[in-house]
Amino acid sequence: MTDLIRQLEAIVGAGNVLGSDAVAQRARHFWDPSPMTALALVRPATTEEVSSILKVCSSHGQTVVTHGGVTGLADGEKSSTDDVILSLERMTAIEQLDPVNRTMTVQAGCILQSVHEAATEAGMFYGLDLGARGSCTIGGNISTNAGGLSVLRYGMTREQVLGLEVVLADGTVLSSLNKMLKNNTGYDLKQLFIGSEGTLGVVTRAVLRLRPDTPTCHTALVAFENFEQVTQTLAHISKSLSANLNAFEILWNDYYHLSTNPGVKGSSRAPLATDYFAYAIIEARGANQQTDEQQFMQALEVAIDKGFITDAVIAKSESERSEIWSIRENVDLTLRHRPLFIYDISLPIDQMQTYLDGVRSVLRQDWPDVIVYAYGHLADNNLHVTIAPQPENFIADPQEQPVKIQSYSDTETAWYEQCNRTVFEPLAKLGGSISAEHGIGLLKKQYLKYSRTPEEVKVMRLLKQSLDPQHILNPGKIF
Ligand SMILES: Cc1cc2nc3c(=O)[nH]c(=O)nc-3n(C[C@H](O)[C@H](O)[C@H](O)COP(=O)(O)OP(=O)(O)OC[C@H]3O[C@@H](n4cnc5c(N)ncnc54)[C@H](O)[C@@H]3O)c2cc1C
Question: Of 1, 299, 309, 454, which sits 20 to 30 A from 252 (CA to CA)?
């Protein structure tokens, strides 16, 4: 046993340091069952233990990759056989729920869904929600500045965090567990760590901002015949529902078709015909039992009367609401294509259709049957784009033929790079972003130049050098 492992065991106990063989028993990622790799995985229970671990790793020059729920989609959590994984899986406590100041203080390994449940039980609401809610952690959400389904109303994770506790690479505990909305006392240090993908420090605790509960919920699935209708509906619905508008999620036809295809195991029922140009899930949440329903119905009726919406179905029960949302959340069905390239971009809403048409037409020159799935948080300028160059390689029933997510062959890697250029290059000209919410990690670092100037990257490097001069935290990620 090495000196490093002995010292780690002395901090957390032998049972909480897993060797490389035990680590390999774990799946690498939420979506990838291949074995996780690391020198060791260490599981602290407190901030003090995280601090001691980082002091030891720092003194050995040992690289550390922090893990939350391993649902990240930029390979930011990817580790090599040389890395120690610092997993927050034992730091899941909800330490305090303060109803007067509307805050919740949690350890960073707390699962997002547990935060939702605790907030609801206390008659309040937490404003971040996303499909991986049952597995992703608050620390992971903070480190990726996660977005999700209600950004148009509550903002990104950045807006949900009032205070933060972070352990720096040398073990220093930086505690800024502020609970107030207003606090202009110098630099807001927590913002430095939000969205830094584990490269500047390890998030150990956070004070989250809670909102008043919104007990009324009205959901509709609507259909469009062209993109003009989409933008008209968004403008109209935003005005009519005002602050109650909670989600406006778009699904272009290819995605809706896949997600509701009865021939695909795990698909959902199609509440509307499958041949429309695009669909949107519109959801309003509020607190007025008397007027919210009427406001929602009226907004939809006007949209239909004005010709903005061609067809619509309104959820009449929680199970109908879940059924509508399942169409949006069936994202894992796209993973049955081999190969598959996943993007998360942002760009001006009025440019989205022209952009998608351009990407499709370039890709068709090499792959005539290519499918470009597009869906996502349109109102936040954010599209998820998934490219399947060879749609014939699709697994309809994973029980008959298991879905194996594996690294790409040399040919597929070359295709991926080609798709990256096709997707990313036009974004620079449109003032868009190569990553709306998933981050840069390893997957996009070579393309950071499309969204950040050399001066911006230089300042990022300066911050990294100041806070982690040995580059032990998540090395090689982002830049
Ligand atoms: C089905 C599905 C749907 C998704 N939908 C969305 C969506 O709508 N919006 C969105 O933004 N993302 C989405 N994601 C991506 C992912 O869920 C988020 O990025 C999430 O915030 C990651 O949390 P995690 O705990 O799994 O972090 P991990 O995957 O474990 O880590 C992600 C990154 O954060 C770092 N990290 C983790 N914990 C800490 C910590 N305590 N301190 C420092 N660094 C840390 C890691 O090193 C890594 O770089 C989705 C993923 C899936 C699988």
Answer: 299
